[in-house]
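User: Structure please.
Assistant: Input sequence and predicted structure:
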Amino acid sequence: MTAPRRALIVIDAQQEYFDGLLPIQYPARDESIARIRAAIDTAKQTGTSIVLVQHELPAEAPVFASGSVTWQNHPEVAAHENVAAKRISKQFSSIFADTDLEAWLREQDIDTITLAGYMTNNCVIASAAAAEPLGFAVEVLSDATGAIDLTNDAGTAPARQIHEILMALLHSNWAAVTDTETWATALHAGAPAPKSDLVTSAEQGRSAR
């Protein structure tokens, strides 16, 4: 089996999710940022390309305002900005929307993207879904991402429930979901992370009733 040609893509690991209006609530943000740092360290050790993505909105925006303190990467990520193979500014949920990421990945012959960062319920799931028609294999690090509590006119969902449901959903079709330690082992071995599929997930779901 050919070893995956991976890029670790750290999505929006910015201060907005720590000190701003969108604090990550599950998994605990101090734990998830530590896992993001561990993934970056592993990528550096194995020569895996690192892509840092930052959401950037106009200076008057309430979140991710360009140049603001909360727009900055978290210090654990900012410390590695100088080793990133590529840095991207985005304005939409998907890392592919209105960016040159797809072209860059193809130039680098990368066929597998490993997603870490925030949020599970927005940019992570949007990016994983967007990768499908582009032909990229996707891995998601479940302990290096995070969600927030949500309440609106359609209902209420706690961050833990959101995160766990979306990890199961992603693993059923769009991505191989794994934890950072297991991913590191696969990376060192040059092996893909195992994933499920929709039919198998549905069958196991029926059996679990």
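The radius of gyration is 16 Å.
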